[in-house]
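Re: the 143-residue chain
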Amino acid sequence: MLKYGGLSRYCGAMQALLATGMDISKALRLSAEASGSPLISDDAPEMVNSVVEGNPVSEYMKHRSDIYPLTLCNMVASGEEASRLSDMYGRSSVFYDMEMNYCVEALGAALEPLMLAGVSVVVGTIVVSIFLPMYSYIGKLSQ
């Protein structure tokens, strides 16, 4: 979830910065900081150096597959080829936001039985703590 959230914020910031006309090296630095991901933030200077040397962003991302998924690399590559990099970052942001929401829903579905068991233990404890004194009191009345 953290990875998808960081990628979504990174792509969203890149889309906004590139759409305003900012140069790519500055946009890469700022969006890496906006992502909130330490992996992306630490990798930003190397990516900027690679882009300044003339390499495409997608080529650098493909070499760092531990940080940037192949889906993002392919979207950026197609955006570079079509000169629509801002749009592709925007689409990637929406995609990773949906992926993060799916992970949150899956985690909620996985934790639901555990939460139900916890609630049943609490309710059972309350019921036993109420009925045990009543049972002993009723037993004393019948004598």
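DSSP finds six helices and no strands in the chain.
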